[in-house]
């Protein structure tokens, strides 16, 4: 039960964090490496913007010095038939219009909700053995990882009582590495937290690097979500969703006989 509750709480938190985070990002749609950005040097690794090509506006996304035309998707967005200089379309942000203050309020609320949920899940998983049994990969899991990856690539998906090696490793990376890294890099961007724990700036190589890492972790979590949903659909959405809601799960007949 605690795992299922945390699962749905994470889904809600990450949805609002993603869309409100993109709203905040629009205030400065650039990512840097280092302590600071400046005019006398260029440490930009990503930039989203708009520029005029003659009389027409074009949106662009620049990654490590390579510029791509993203008109209509990023940088220059159609609004009522006309292109406007805007990093993301309205459906990708909360609120859908430019409102940094509201975006920050929503983002911080769900950020702390995520922290509380992660703490609740970690404590309950230590108590009920879920962490050791289902999340931490053991030697047998690592030895069987290659075969499990091959089975997933061939869509040979098993319905068993235990998580497979790839599942364990994926959840371990997301829950115990990416989630804490997302929280810690978010805190590092706060001047108030820097005063309390200045070592975080040294740990991440500066506030701008922490912001870039925060963005990269967000992309990794979105990628995990897409793969997670795809696996649910391929494994049988009725069975998978029923297990997420009720805890009842149909397993393969071969494992029933064990």
Describe the structure.
The protein has helices spanning 2-25, 100-128, 130-135, 139-143, 145-153, 165-188, 191-196, 199-204, 207-235, 237-246, 253-256; strands at 30-32, 44-53, 56-63, 66-69, 75-79, 82-86. The strands form 2 sheets. Strands 1-2-3-4 form a 4-stranded antiparallel beta sheet. The protein has a two-stranded antiparallel ribbon with strand order 5-6. Helix 6 (165-188) runs antiparallel to helix 9 and helix 9 crosses helix 10 (237-246). The chain starts with a helix and ends with a helix. Helix content is 59%, strand content 14%. It is of the alpha+beta class and 258 residues long. It is globular and about 60 Å long. It folds into 2 domains: 2-26 and 97-249, Transmembrane di-heme cytochromes, Chain C (Fumarate Reductase Cytochrome B subunit, Up-down Bundle); 30-87, no CATH class. It is built from 11 helices and 6 strands. Pfam families: Ni_hydr_CYTB (PF01292). It is found in: Cell membrane.
């Amino acid at each position: 039960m605690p795992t299922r509750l945390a699962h749905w709480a994470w889904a809600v938190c990450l949805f609002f964090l993603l869309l409100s985070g993109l709203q905040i990002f629009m205030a400065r749609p650039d990512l840097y490496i280092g302590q600071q950005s400046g005019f006398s040097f260029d440490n930009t690794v990503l930039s989203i913007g708009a520029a005029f090509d003659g009389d027409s506006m074009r949106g662009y996304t620049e990654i490590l010095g390579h510029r791509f035309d993203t008109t209509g998707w990023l940088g220059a967005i159609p609004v009522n038939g006309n292109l406007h200089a805007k990093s993301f379309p309205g459906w990708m942000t909360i609120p859908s219009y430019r409102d940094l203050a509201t975006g920050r309020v929503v983002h911080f609320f769900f950020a702390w909700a995520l922290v509380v949920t992660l703490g609740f899940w970690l404590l309950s998983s230590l108590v009920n053995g879920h962490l050791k049994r289902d999340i931490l990969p053991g030697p047998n899991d690592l030895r069987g990882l290659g075969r499990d990856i091959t089975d997933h690539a061939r869509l040979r998906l098993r319905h068993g009582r235990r998580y497979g090696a790839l599942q364990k490793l994926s959840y371990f990376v997301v829950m115990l590495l990416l989630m804490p890294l997302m929280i810690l890099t978010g805190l590092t961007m706060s001047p108030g937290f820097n005063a309390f724990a200045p070592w975080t700036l040294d740990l991440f190589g500066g506030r701008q690097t922490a912001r870039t890492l925060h963005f990269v972790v967000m992309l990794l979590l979105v990628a995990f979500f897409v793969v997670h949903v795809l696996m649910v659909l391929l494994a049988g959405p009725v069975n998978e969703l029923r297990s997420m809601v009720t805890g009842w799960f149909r397993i393969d007949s071969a494992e029933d006989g064990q």
